[in-house]
Write a structure and sequence with these properties.
With about 190 residues, the chain is mainly α. The chain has 2 domains: about 80 residues, Leucine-rich Repeat Variant (Alpha Horseshoe); about 100 residues, Leucine-rich Repeat Variant (Alpha Horseshoe), CATH 1.25.10. It contains 11 helices and no strands.
Length: about 190
């Protein structure tokens, strides 16, 4: 049955924009337990293109998917649907929600840091908030790391990073903030 589901998703994708009415069904497949089905859904949405804009928030969540192949497919697909997807008003609330994943397990937290790097400058406000307001040392450290990965696009975070590099109570946060500042200025 899973093979049929995967094949159906691939077929829908081949129809391209004509399959726009199937976007809700394809989007549901992004939460399937089988990574091959999730990947087929991501690819199908990319082929549907701009007609799949409603799926942008779900695709942002796929940036932290357990499957590396799903995660790797998402940035290109997001760009096919909307070249300015990260600035989409539909996506902004999900970027803020994604910041809550910074405190998850080591692997999930690292995936979230990497997702913020993919999202880029649009994620800077959520990361600044996490860096400046979280009581959790791990969240502040990961927020600083994500800002460093964004590089020059995170210039708006320099004041918060300088404060963290000088005065955070945890050495790991101070170190991550200092490294982020070097990366932002280095490019």
């Amino acid at each position: 049955m899973e093979a049929v589901h995967e094949a159906a998703l691939r077929l829908l994708g081949e129809f391209g924009p004509v399959a726009s009415e199937a976007v809700p069904v394809v989007t549901q497949a992004l939460s399937d337990s089988n990574p091959r089905i999730r990947l087929a859904a991501v690819i199908a949405l990319g082929h549907i293109g701009p007609q799949a804009r409603v799926a942008l928030p779900d695709l942002v969540w796929s940036l932290v998917d357990r499957s590396e192949t799903v995660r790797q497919a998402c940035p290109e697909v997001l760009g096919k649907i909307d070249p300015d997807w990260a600035s989409s008003p539909k996506v902004q609330p999900f970027i803020s929600s994604l910041a809550k994943h910074l405190e998850r397990s080591r692997e999930a937290g690292q995936l979230t840091v990497e997702a913020f790097a993919v999202i880029g400058p649009a994620s800077v406000p959520a990361l600044i908030e996490a860096l400046e307001t979280s009581d959790n040392r791990i969240v502040r450290e990961r927020a600083a790391k994500a800002l460093g990965l964004i590089g020059p696009g995170a210039r708006g975070a320099i004041p918060g990073l300088m404060e963290a590099a000088r005065g955070d109570s945890h050495g790991w946060v101070r170190e991550a903030a200092a490294e982020a500042l070097r990366k932002i200025d280095a490019q």
